UniProtKB/TrEMBL annotation:
Pathway: Lipid metabolism
InterPro entries, per database record: Plipid/glycerol_acylTrfase (IPR002123)
Assigned keywords, A-Z: Acyltransferase, Transferase
Domain Phospholipid/glycerol acyltransferase: 78-191
Protein's recorded name: 1-acyl-sn-glycerol-3-phosphate acyltransferase
Length: 249
């Protein structure tokens, strides 16, 4: 079984590269066609199709989405946050049934293939620790939310090394309060085993994302930022033990 899974892991790497290479010309054309659209809705849909296709073609991974999205999420922008156990998270979250622009660290945009896909998919780059980059990112996110597209942020800022979510950073919650967009927490479980942070391989397994109840922000101010951040993290961490127990993680 280990030899077979190792062979399937090699196949999966090659399949991912093939999928990205095949999708890039279409994504580039969509990016060019919609370059003036602040929502980047159509390029983002191609990015989600790429994630779903690549995830579906490997026999090693199985994904499940639990919970119901807010009924107005395609019309009313939300700030979506999730814990970040693994590089496999975007493949899982590509199955969420609504449009979003993602915020990702700038280094990813500089990598071959994946960086081009992020650019053509309309995602937003952030140089961590750089105030100018943070302000540019926030301005672009605010414009996108005003135009009706949700924003996806991993508030931990990096992948975790264990099962516990790390401290959440303030940016996503500042954005939600400033734009009055509802905050939508997503709990992610199981992806760490599919693509461990400290290991080069892809492993067999099942992962799940659970859509939680949105948190309104209309009446919140900057003074409420810490409470909103902690409430979101608490909501995510509260459901992780049940997800792990039910799915055997």
């Amino acid at each position: 079984m280990k030899i077979r899974d190792a062979a399937l892991g090699i196949y999966t790497h090659l399949e991912f590269v093939t999928c990205v290479t095949a999708f890039l010309p279409i994504m580039a054309a969509s990016h060019l066609r919609h370059r003036g659209d602040v929502t980047q809705r159509e390029p983002g849909r191609w990015m989600r199709r790429l994630g779903r296709t690549a995830g579906s073609l490997t026999p090693l991974w199985k994904f499940t989405i639990e919970g119901e999205p807010p009924p107005d999420i395609q019309r009313k922008a939300h700030v979506v946050v999730a814990n970040h156990p693994s590089e496999a998270d975007p493949f899982l979250l590509a199955w969420l049934p609504w449009d979003m622009r993602w915020v990702a660290k700038e280094e990813l945009f500089k990598t071959p293939l994946i960086g081009w896909a992020l650019t053509f998919g309309g995602d937003i780059a952030l140089r961590r620790g750089d105030g100018s980059s943070v302000r540019t990112m926030m301005t672009e996110c605010e414009s996108a939310i005003a135009a009706g597209i949700s924003i996806m942020i991993f508030p931990e800022g990096t992948r975790t090394r264990n099962d516990d979510a790390m401290r959440f950073r303030d940016g996503a919650f500042d954005l939600a309060i400033r734009t009055k967009a509802p905050l939508l927490p997503i709990a992610v479980a199981g992806t760490k085993d599919l693509r461990p942070k400290t290991a080069p391989w892809i492993a067999r397994g099942h992962a799940c994302a659970k859509i939680l109840e949105p948190i309104p922000t209309e009446n919140l101010t900057a003074e409420d930022l810490g409470a909103l951040r902690d409430r979101s993290r608490d909501a995510i961490t509260a459901v992780l033990p049940d997800l792990r127990a039910r799915h055997g993680y």
